[in-house]
Amino acid sequence: MKLLKGQIYYPKNRKIEKVKYLTICAHQDDNEIMAIHGILKGYYSKNSSFACVVTTDGGGSARTGEFKDYTDEMMKKVRIEEQKQASEIGRYHSLYLLNYTSKEVKDNHNIDIVNEYKDIILELKPEVIYTHNILDKHPTHLGVVKKVIQAIRLLERKDRPKIVYGCEVWRGLDWVDDDKKIGFDVSRNERLQKQLLDVFKSQIAGGKAYTKASIGRRYANATYFQSHSVDSYKMISYAIDLTPLIKNDGLSIKEYATSFIDDLYTDVNNNL
Hints:
Radius of gyration: 18 Å
Distance between the termini: 56 Å
Number of helices: 11
Shape: globular
Largest sheet: 8 strands, mixed
Helix content: 40-55%
């Protein structure tokens, strides 16, 4: 397929097996922060692989140190190259760099992104999609997840993924009711996880210690998962199940999102 504005990159050491796991995210490095479960699944699977869609162009990010004098255009090139490096390290099947601006992603009337998501899903036919969660506080992340749901709802039932997960980046999900949040065991290969995050030097140099923060969050999730038992896993990443939104096209995204908050209110109220 041909993208409207972006490019498709195939890593040199790519896995050619069928794509079972797909991430659709907003920015370069979001994938490596939130979808490590899918990356590891694809990396170690013998008969399936992992692919990634990055929606924005990489402009407008914070910068300091060696990148402090870089223009937006220069940063875009750097961030694209960093994402390509991550795809090589993780042996992704393919990397879709759509090259939209954050403004376009947040535009509720932009149908081009929705259609590109739909076409990519139709081409790859993944069983599992990882995207941003509907409780995230980053407006561009919310723009992506709303468009992902919209794109899937345009598909025939037979062409839809089996599962859609909303993952944590700019708001942790540890507060979600235990019966409603999904804890992925991501204890395997911490070295690979660090390598995947360390390639984004432009972000780390910009004052964002994403490697330490992301690995630390996974350790914290595992430690604080249960209070009355020993840790079952070394690292956990959290997600919420967005599948109800693609099984019931009439289910409101806002109502589904606020139901998690209602559960928290009920739990706190009952406990006190």
